[in-house]
Amino acid sequence: MEQMTLFENSMPQPLAARLRPQSLEEYVGQAHLLGPGKVLRRLIESDQVSSMIFWGPPGVGKTTLARIIANRTRAVFIDFSAVTSGIKEIRTVMQQAEDNRRYGEKTIVFVDEIHRFNKAQQDAFLPFVERGSIILIGATTENPSFEVNGALLSRCKVFVLQALEAQDLVCLLQRALKDPKNGFGNLSVQMPPQSLSVIADFANGDARTALSTLEMVVLNGDTNGDTIIVSPETLAQCTSKRSLLYDKKGEEHYNLISALHKSMRNSDPDAAVYWLARMLEAGEDPLYVARRIVRFASEDVGLADPQALTQAVAAFQACHFIGMPECTVHLTQVVVYLSLAPKSNALYTAYEQAKQDALEQLAEPVPLVIRNAPTKLMAQLSYGKGYQYAHDTKEKLTSMQCLPDSLLGRSYYQPAGQGQEAELLKRLEQIKEWKSKVSARR
């Protein structure tokens, strides 16, 4: 049984809503969960559904699957939006669910975009989920590990729904063209060959986008009696701009910047430029990308190519000066440069090791020999006593101890020997050898 809203059928519904599958047999995709013998299908067929969260990209059937489960299990279905609902609405729905339970009816509360609820709102569901007053089905496009609080997440089974394959979308589109009641089966639609494949590719795994695009294509076709003729130009116009899956604050944001970093680190300029384009064309702030690239220049290239940081900072400044879309070429330049540059993480590891010692070792005082003595008292206390000015020596070196006693002999910076760091490695070895010989003569 499903809760209906007032005047729900007073307005014509979009094609995607009219063709929403009503049963598992009509449902397309997610074979890894709903194929014969798969875990979710067995739970539904045996009426043993418990609270769960569907995690997946838009348009893969999260809401549809929840409705199918409600119909299959003969439960009251309450559609609840995290965007428009607050604590008061949650309590009202929970009271309704309690009343249903007293009459022996199960209630499935479907919460779309559950990640938009704050902790207090999510916690409001907890006692009712624990008592079994409701079966909670949440849908989210964000990683529930980050967006759903632990107490609620521990009481729900997470099912990962995947983007639909192109052939799945083509099947949906064919069904829309043949269905005389909810689709275009009462019309003769003439389209260029491979049109459905073009729409499926454009939809990028999103069934809602695929059906909405088909509807747009048909409605904009030329009418000749009961025949609708879709020209190649109409098809091209309706599929001219793909909406890239991207959330500037969500997991995909971090997935893509990670892909960019790892591609540059792996010296793969083609992959790096692709992931850069994916981010920028989806609307990412170029200054965010530029800042991350500046970090990469020192973390992953460092002194193997000292020009890497210069290139990265220059790209950041160019982005700041002229913005999108002109700055795409500057970011491409630095991404390719860093991808092809010799790699060294010696600076990163040097700081991390030093940080660990700084946090875990005793906070020893700075050795007196390298302290300044700007006052007479400090000089009397031996501040700076024995200090050796390196520029006064022929070698521009001294054997003076600069580390605390407990860290004597520590080696943080260890050049990788790549690019210009090979020369730095030789220089460092010479310095250490000279200091060792001078110390041995004492």
The share of residues in extended strands comes to 5-15%
Can you tell me the overall shape? elongated
Helix content: 40-55%
Question: From the helix content, strand content and strand pairing, which structural class follows?
Answer: alpha/beta
Number of helices: 21
Distance between the termini: 92 Å
Order of strands, widest sheet: 2-3-4-1-5
- Computed CA radius of gyration, to the nearest angstrom: 32 Å
- Arithmetic mean of pLDDT: 84
Q: Number of DSSP strands?
A: 8
Contiguous runs where pLDDT drops below 50 for at least 5 residues: 1-9
Largest pleated sheet = 5 strands, parallel
Written as H for each helix and E for each strand, in order along the chain, the element string is: HHHEHEHEHHEHHEHEHHEEHHHHHHHHH
